[in-house]
Design goal:
Elements lengths: L1 E6 L10 H6 L9 H9 L5 E6 L7 H6 L2 E5 L5 H13 L3 E5 L1 H5 L1 H6 L4 E3 L3 H14 L4 E3 L25 E4 L2 E2 L10 H5 L4 E2 L2 H13 L5 E4 L8 H17 L5 E5 L8 H9 L2 E9 L3 H6 L10 H10 L3 E8 L8 H12 L3 E6 L7 H8 L24 H15 L2 H14 L14 H17 L3 H14 L4 H9 L1 H41 L1
Parallel strand pairs: 1-2, 1-3, 3-4, 4-5, 5-6, 7-10, 10-11, 11-12, 12-13, 13-14
Antiparallel strand pairs: 8-9
Length: 526
């Protein structure tokens, strides 16, 4: 069987980093870990080719070569996925689709002609699909009634990737999260009992990418890396020795719940394993909103103290924020900006609340009759897809204003500088690597744009010199964080333009509806 794996294109978003990636001649932040894991689970006598649409287009030769086309992706990749399913069917190809989008909304994939829906987690449903292929079936839907044991998951087919195209590589240690945030679909897709691989499994994956020549950042893509703290500590102790034996070839980054701050041993282990960054979901500094959305883990300890503890442990903070929770008081956008400034978090991802399929939030709002007839946007440029408890226009305007303020060039430079000045020192000696042509070009471009062209140039040079004097071990990560401003400065304008346009459409439709209802009421009265 000749299988063409297609990873649909992601739309421009907070995380797409196009401008920053251009600086270092890379096309995408992360590779499609799901698809190369699928390739590892399927029969190894099959032949595979990978076309990542975030890196390049599918070639005519690949279309001609393929007997079977497999796509996987998230809801945010919907548009490009549907286009390529239709294209494959026009070319007479058999099409199979899996992943979070297909699992959440399988009917949408069936409507465009998908032959096989491989839903839920592939360790269980891919063997069902292979059996169907062996029987000669030409269509089918495969679902799991349980969660798989991920200790059986094989090493992903990293050999299918073009390493030069990606800024980070990705691996996964666990699936699932123990918490119950109302808006989150992770617990719907993967459950509330975190399942982990063994330390030996993950080390084998690190061995594989090391042997293939990778020497840059590795992202552990777990939605909550510390969901099972006992197993994570066992892993980190093993990774620490592995890293030491190989002179720390990778820098690591991941996502974790903010209760990481209450476990100094865990933070120390992460720092010793060469973790340099962690993304945490703050959502909002408003305790009442956190309680409404059942994010109780963020209410147990003061958030500012937690952020400071993680930063001083030697980890750069990235954080997520949401506006539009039920019962939210006016001024939520300003309160988020104030919190971000107070904690000096450089990268604060902010978005309007979106209702995702099959979440507790969706079921509640459906009962209350508050869902709007549009799907979740999946990026920071989408208006809310439900009726909030305060005026949509107020929330949208607060959001636009807050996002604009967060990525003001001076604010961003100041915040980044303060963050790195208080950040704990790395536990391992930084190995200086040869500055290649792309990195040198990127460095000079940042110096030119931020140190010469912009009005904030004097602040840029002041902060840079101060970092070199007081925190030289952080220079590389600091300058790369500064470089991300090239993306955020453009993206904040995109957020403003898109949300403003959608808000105008929403208000026009709302006015028309009110006018119709008023006319109907007058007619009924007459």
């Amino acid at each position: 069987m000749r299988v063409l794996l297609i990873n649909p294109r992601f739309p421009q978003s907070f995380w797409s980093f196009e401008k920053a990636l251009e600086l270092v001649d890379r096309q995408a932040l992360l590779p499609p870990l799901g698809l190369i894991t699928v390739a590892a689970i399927l029969p190894q006598e099959w032949e595979f080719k990978l076309a990542d649409r975030n890196v390049r287009d599918v070639t005519e030769a690949e279309w001609d070569w393929a007997q079977l086309v497999i796509l996987s992706g998230m809801i945010v990749q919907k548009e490009d996925m549907l286009v390529h399913i239709r294209e494959a069917k026009l070319r007479g190809k058999s099409v199979a689709v899996g992943g979070p989008y297909a699992t959440a909304l399988p009917h949408e994939l069936k409507e465009v002609g998908t032959d096989f829906l491989i839903l839920d987690e592939g360790e269980i449903t891919l063997p069902m699909f292979v059996e169907a292929i062996d029987r000669g079936d030409t269509e089918g839907i495969f679902r799991a009634t349980e969660k798989p044991d991920v200790t059986t998951t094989p090493i992903p087919r990293f050999d299918l990737l073009d390493f030069g195209a990606y800024d980070n590589l990705s691996v996964q240690f666990s699936r699932g999260c123990p918490f119950q945030c109302e808006f989150c679909d992770i617990i719907v897709l993967y459950g509330r009992k975190p399942r982990t691989k063994t330390p030996e499994q993950l080390l084998a994956e690190l061995d594989r990418i090391y042997d293939l020549g990778w020497r840059r950042t590795v992202f552990l893509v777990d939605d909550n890396f510390i969901g099972n703290k006992r197993n994570v500590k066992l892993l980190l102790r093993a990774v620490k020795g592995w890293m030491e034996e190989r002179n720390h070839p990778f820098r690591l980054t991941t996502e974790a719940s903010v209760d990481l701050a209450q476990d100094p041993e865990l933070m120390d282990l992460m720092a010793e394993c060469n973790f340099h960054s962690v993304f945490v979901g703050i959502e909002t500094p408003d305790a009442d909103s956190l309680a409404v959305t059942k994010k109780f883990q963020n209410t147990r300890d003061p958030l500012i103290e937690s952020i400071n503890a993680i930063n001083t442990a030697g980890l750069r903070l990235m954080a997520g924020f949401i506006i539009g929770f039920d019962g939210e008081k006016p001024g939520a956008g300003d309160r988020i900006v104030e919190f971000v400034e107070q904690t000096s978090i450089p990268m604060a991802m902010m978005s309007m609340l979106q209702v995702l399929p099959d979440t507790a939030l969706m079921h509640r709002l459906k009962k209350e009759g508050r869902l709007l007839d549009r799907s979740a946007g999946g990026t920071q440029t989408a208006l809310m897809n439900f009726i909030p408890t305060r005026p949509m226009e107020d929330i949208a305007r607060e959001y636009i204003d807050a996002f604009w303020k967060l990525y003001d060039p001076v604010r961003y430079l100041d915040r980044t500088y303060r963050h790195f000045m208080t950040m704990g020192e790395p536990r391992n000696k930084i190995k200086l690597r040869k500055l290649d042509r792309a990195s040198l070009k990127a460095l000079l471009t940042v110096f030119w744009l931020q140190g010469v062209v912009r009005a904030s140039r004097w602040k840029f040079w002041h902060h840079l010199v101060s970092i070199l004097r007081h925190k030289p071990s952080h220079f590389g990560l600091y300058i790369s964080t500064c470089a991300l401003a090239e993306h955020f400065l453009e993206y904040r304008q995109i957020v403003r333009d898109n949300i403003t346009a959608q808000l105008e459409e929403y208000l026009a439709a709302k006015a028309q509806k009110e006018e119709r209802e008023e006319s109907q009421a007058e007619a009924a009265a007459a």
